[in-house]
Amino acid sequence: MNDDIVSVCLRRSSTATPWGFNMQGGIDLGSCLYIQKVKPNGIAYKAGVRPGDAILQICRCPAQYLSHQNAKMEIIRSGNELDLVLQRNVVTQGVVSLQEARSSVEEEPSPFRGYQNPTLQSRSFKIIQKCLNYEDSYED
Length: 140
Hints:
This protein is of the alpha+beta class. Helices cover about 20% and strands about 25% of the residues.
């Protein structure tokens, strides 16, 4: 069956070695956490991780309510032993677009520039002016 739930154990000898996958999504982005890309011949590739797999657990931590940042922190905390529970083929590659998650705001220029008083000075400017004794130069 293509939608199987699988457990994947990733192991590496050093934290300098990348896991070999890119993760997308998170509750803060309005989608499940999923594997976006897998580096050919990387650790994740050799363990059977595939693009489009949804991440259900990261080291026994349910990923359902994790933000993207919290998921990254769980992966970092795992050190050199990362255990993932994945569900196959949940996200169809090419269908999920970052453009869909973004919204655009279009503003029209306004002729209103706010209240402007040429004789109005900020309190900070007045204090500086007083300290520098420039008050007399403006009284001419």
